[in-house]
């Protein structure tokens, strides 16, 4: 193998896929990047066998097509120390290769590409969809924080993609809160769904965050492939039945609070300082025109309350929540005004952007109450 390449281009390609290099592994070959030279393109692959990232970069003066596995840590650390300049990569003998730059070179070991695990994507029966990159990135950003860390219920550790022609909904829940993001911009041929693990979702979002093109999605019951520009992400799906989120979305709640999102967010932050650290309980006392938020920790003689003027139509109501859940939900919305809808103190509250906001109808949050004295 031999080729010339810009050191900056090579470093960017390695960095783009490096998130798939495992921190610990029982298979040492996975600590390497797989280089595959194909004409004037170098394909770079990294994988932990659950998540695979692949990209390709243009190279000059390529030799014969060949593949080798090269050490990831040393390659990235070396290229980070070089100013942008042409470098030559070439194998020199059995088991070693050189990286040559303007006034120096290094010799590093390589390993046979045959030792690298075969990367399998979706099967022949795969379904297909496509998303604008900005929409897919936004949907992950709105939902991924609501995923859980559940060993017994792994389906809660990912984002459900519930797709049908005309409407796609991305849903995440940890059983205490639920977020649903709905878009009509995805292209789907038939009703289908899959659950993407939150780790893969975070990596995918970072990869497509600033892109303005389409992301192609190919998936079957076990694997999914996301293709964007020169990049590919292949990962294993979470297999299982996601909770029926439509059944838990409360309907026809008669008690309605409309309030400035940042005002409510900051008030909850201030009051929750005095909440019990184990429970994080706070209480909303609602009456027409006013919301009072209270918290206390009797063990440390702490207490706080704040009154906020608001639009509230409904019965006088006292309802408790865990403050981190409210902070998460409000902090991950972008609308100026939110609407909270309540049935009573025992049933879930619905949180949505106000009808005047562009996000209205796109974001829906559900927050379970807690019993407080």
In short:
This protein has 373 residues and is an alpha+beta fold. 18% of the residues lie in helices and 43% in strands. It contains seven helices and 27 strands.
Supply the number of helical segments.
Answer: 7
- The count of DSSP E runs of length 2 or more, i.e. the number of strands, is 27
Q: What is the CA–CA distance across the termini?
A: 72 Å
Radius of gyration: 26 Å
By secondary-structure content and strand pairing, the structural class works out as: alpha+beta
Tell me, briefly, the overall form: elongated
Strand order of the largest sheet: 9-5-2-3-4-18-17-16-10-14
Give a quick account of the main beta sheet: strands, pairing sense, barrel closure: 10 strands, antiparallel
Strand content: 35-45%
Mean pLDDT: 94
Ranges where pLDDT stays below 50 over 5 or more residues in a row are: none
Helix content: 10-25%
SSE topology:
Elements: E1 2-6, H1 7-17, E2 32-38, E3 41-47, E4 51-58, E5 67-71, H2 72-80, E6 86-93, E7 96-101, E8 104-109, E9 111-112, E10 127-132, H3 133-143, E11 158-164, E12 167-173, E13 177-183, E14 187-188, E15 192-197, H4 198-208, E16 214-219, E17 223-228, E18 231-236, H5 245-248, E19 255-260, H6 261-272, E20 281-287, E21 290-297, E22 302-309, E23 311-313, E24 317-322, H7 323-331, E25 337-342, E26 349-353, E27 363-367
Antiparallel strand pairs: 1-6, 2-3, 2-5, 3-4, 4-18, 5-9, 6-7, 7-8, 10-14, 10-16, 11-12, 11-15, 12-13, 13-27, 16-17, 17-18, 19-23, 19-25, 20-21, 20-24, 21-22, 25-26, 26-27
Family: Belongs to the beta sliding clamp family.
Keywords: Cytoplasm, DNA replication, DNA-binding, DNA-directed DNA polymerase, Nucleotidyltransferase, Transferase
Domain DNA polymerase III beta sliding clamp N-terminal: 1-119
């Amino acid at each position: 193998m031999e080729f010339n390449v810009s050191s900056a281009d090579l470093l960017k390609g390695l960095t783009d896929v490096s998130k798939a290099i495992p921190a610990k592994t029982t298979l040492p070959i996975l600590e390497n990047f797989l280089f595959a030279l194909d004409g004037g393109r170098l394909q770079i692959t990294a994988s932990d066998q659950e998540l695979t990232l692949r990209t390709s970069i243009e190279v000059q003066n390529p030799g014969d097509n060949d593949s080798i596995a090269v050490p990831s840590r040393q390659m990235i650390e070396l290229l980070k120390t070089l100013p942008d300049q042409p470098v030559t990569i070439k194998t020199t003998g059995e088991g070693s290769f050189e990286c040559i730059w303007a006034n120096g070179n290094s010799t590093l070991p390589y390993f046979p590409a045959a030792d690298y695990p075969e990367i399998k994507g979706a099967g022949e029966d795969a379904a297909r969809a496509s998303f604008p990159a900005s929409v897919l990135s936004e949907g992950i950003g709105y939902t991924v924080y609501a995923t859980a860390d559940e060993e017994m219920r792994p389906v809660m550790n990912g984002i459900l993609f519930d797709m049908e022609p005309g409407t796609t909904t991305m849903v995440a829940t940890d059983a205490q809160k639920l977020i649903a993001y709905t878009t009509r911009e995805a292209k789907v041929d038939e009703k289908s769904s899959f659950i993407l693990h939150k780790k893969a979702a975070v990596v995918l979002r970072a990869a497509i965050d600033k892109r303005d093109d389409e992301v192609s999605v190919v998936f079957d019951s076990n694997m999914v492939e996301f293709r964007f520009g020169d990049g590919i992400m292949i990962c294993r799906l979470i297999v299982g039945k996601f909770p029926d989120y439509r059944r838990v979305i409360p309907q026809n709640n008669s008690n309605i609070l409309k309030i400035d999102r940042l005002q409510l967010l900051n008030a909850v932050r201030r009051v929750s300082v005095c909440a019990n650290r184990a429970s994080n309980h706070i209480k909303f006392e609602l009456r027409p025109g006013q919301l009072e938020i209270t918290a206390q920790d009797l063990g440390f003689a702490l207490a706080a309350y704040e009154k906020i003027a608001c639009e509230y139509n409904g019965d006088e109501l006292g309802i408790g929540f865990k403050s981190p859940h409210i902070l998460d939900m409000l902090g991950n919305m972008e609308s100026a005004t939110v609407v909270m809808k309540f049935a009573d103190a025992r049933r879930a509250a619905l949180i949505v952007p106000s009808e005047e906001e562009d996000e209205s109808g796109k974001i829906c949050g559900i927050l379970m109450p807690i019993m407080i004295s």
